[in-house]
Amino acid sequence: MGTRLENVKTNFDVYMLGKFFWCMVTGQTKLEREFWDEPENDVTKLFPDDPHMHMINVILERSVVQRQGKCFGSADDLLLGSGQQP
Prior knowledge:
- The chain is mainly α.
- The protein has one domain.
- It has helices spanning about 10-25, 45, 55-60, 75-80.
C-alpha cells in the first residue's frame, strides 16, 4: 500500500510465511497480494492430482489474508491450526 507499518505484529510474519510457503509449493517466485485462491494461483487447481493441496489452502486462507484479524496470530497458531493461543 506504500505506507510504513509502525506497529508490526506477529501475524505479519505469519502472512509472509504463508506467501513463502505458497512459493515453495508452486515453484513460483512471487504471489501477488492475497490472490492465492484465484484459479491461476489455487494449488488445488495447479496440482489437481495431489490430495494434500486442500490442506495447503486451509493454511493459506488463515495466513495470506487482506484483513489482519483473519490471520493466525503467530507461528504457534499456524502449527496448531486453531488460531488460538497454545
